[in-house]
Design goal:
The protein has 125 residues and is mainly α. Helix content is 45%, strand content 0%. It contains six helices and no strands. The longest helix is centred in the last third of the chain and has 23 residues. The chain is rod-shaped.
Amino acid sequence: KAFRNLPGVTLLNVNRLNLLHLAPGGHLGRFCIWTETAFQDLGEIYSSETLPRDVMKHADLTRIINSDEIQRVVRPVKDQRRPAIKKNPLKNINVMVRLNPYAKIAKRAATLALLKRAKARAVAN
């Protein structure tokens, strides 16, 4: 237990081993020192099973995950859509009508009132 105070040294119980402690980040090859009782405990834990063997032939996990073949399946290609151009409803009547259907009637009434006033001025002069 005195090894706990050394920087960079991790003590683990054989009963609580996991892959993240033995190979952090998927990089195999961490230096491990086993005690004789740890090997005996391993024999008891895996008595009915065979000891785990290497599943991966290639240890560079990040290169495998970031490869084009894997990423194509995991993250399919998105269709490239251009963002819609925002139109000003104060300048574009069609956009304003989409926001406020009454705007068309109000705009028409304002235009007719303007024409009526212009006609009245022309008659008065």
